[in-house]
Specification:
The protein is mainly α. The protein has two domains: 43 residues; 252 residues, MetI-like fold, CATH 1.10.3720.10. It has ten helices and two strands, in the order αββααααααααα.
Length: 318
């Protein structure tokens, strides 16, 4: 027994330097990996910050020019302001959310709560992924041929909103699906044990519990939709009426601001049009419009975090 103990102690002593070397090697590799990942994050952050600062530096001065945010554009966009383009961008966003949010919500509820595991779920998931990967220019061409030509809507806000809906539905469906799946299964079981139907459980328990994540996803997707340009070139058009009447409720009038069948020009399309014309005297309008678009997208991201945290505190009472 004594000889065995001495042999084990000798063997452990022999392996101790090798074990220490492995530990030091693992710690060194961990530090290298941490440094590489930190450098990658720093590079990405530097690129984003540099882009934001450069755009704001070039265009923020234009925001303080009298009438830039309150006047209509003139001389094919080379003069005046961006009031109509700013309104059309938000109006397109609202129309898109009105169409896409109910579809995405009911689709996600069906996939999570009602669809059986099998071909239906797989086909639906594949269709959603395929739709989300389509190039925006292809969606714009489809929207032009389907809604502008076949439906006879021409260049109109409703055509642009439906085209943008095709981008928004996959994003919102994935977000809402993930939010519903993250709700603990115990809440479902408790509701069903109390005699609630599956629909009542979904409506009164699951959706309210997932609401913080849903709101965050909706606001983030709004930023994605707000900056879209390619799909709108073929659907909503590259111009707004020379004059819009915001007090008119004649929805068939081409000058009624609320007419969804009139053409409209978003901020992103306005940038593309003016910059594409290459007019040197209009470059300050390009940078000013880009600064407005950048600020709006940043506000969407900040608002999503604030709304998500506020709803989470309210829902969880923390």
């Amino acid at each position: 027994m004594a000889n065995t103990t001495v042999a084990q102690a000798t063997s452990g002593g022999a392996h101790a330097p090798a074990q220490d070397a492995r530990i030091r090697r693992a710690m060194r590799n961990d530090k290298i990996a941490t440094g590489v990942l930190g450098a990658i994050v720093a590079i990405v952050m530097a690129i984003v910050v540099a882009m934001v600062v450069y755009i704001l530096f070039q265009g923020v001065g234009q925001l303080f020019q009298p009438g830039f945010l309150t006047e209509a554009s003139r001389s094919n966009g080379t003069e005046g302001g961006i009031a109509y383009q700013l309104f059309d961008s938000f109006y397109l966003l609202i129309l898109t959310l009105i169409i896409s949010l109910p579809i995405s919500l009911f689709g996600a509820v069906f996939l999570v709560e009602y669809a059986p595991e099998g071909p239906v779920t797989k086909i639906a998931s594949t269709a959603i992924e395929t739709l989300s990967s389509l190039p925006s220019i292809v969606v714009g061409m489809f929207g032009f041929l389907m809604f502008s030509v076949n439906f006879g809507w021409g260049y109109s806000l409703i055509s642009g909103a439906i085209a943008l809906t095709m981008f928004n539905i996959p994003i919102l469906t994935r977000v809402i699906t993930q939010a519903l799946e993250d709700v603990p299964a115990s809440q479902r079981d408790a509701c069903l044990a109390m005699g609630l139907t599956r629909w009542e459980t979904t409506l009164h328990v699951l959706i309210p519990a997932a609401m913080p994540a849903i709101v965050t996803g909706v606001v983030l997707s709004a930023g994605r939709v707000f900056g879209e340009a390619a799909a709108l070139l073929f659907t909503s058009g590259m111009s707004s009426p020379a004059r819009l009447n915001f007090l008119s409720l004649n929805f068939s009038s081409p000058t009624c601001a609320w007419n969804i069948f009139r053409p409209g020009e978003s901020l992103a399309v306005h940038i593309y049009k003016i910059y594409g014309e290459g007019s040197p005297e209009a470059q300050h309008i390009v940078w000013g419009t880009a600064a407005v678009l950048m600020i709006c997208v940043l506000l969407f991201n900040v608002l999503s975090r604030i709304a998500g945290k506020a709803l989470a505190r309210r829902m969880t009472a923390e």
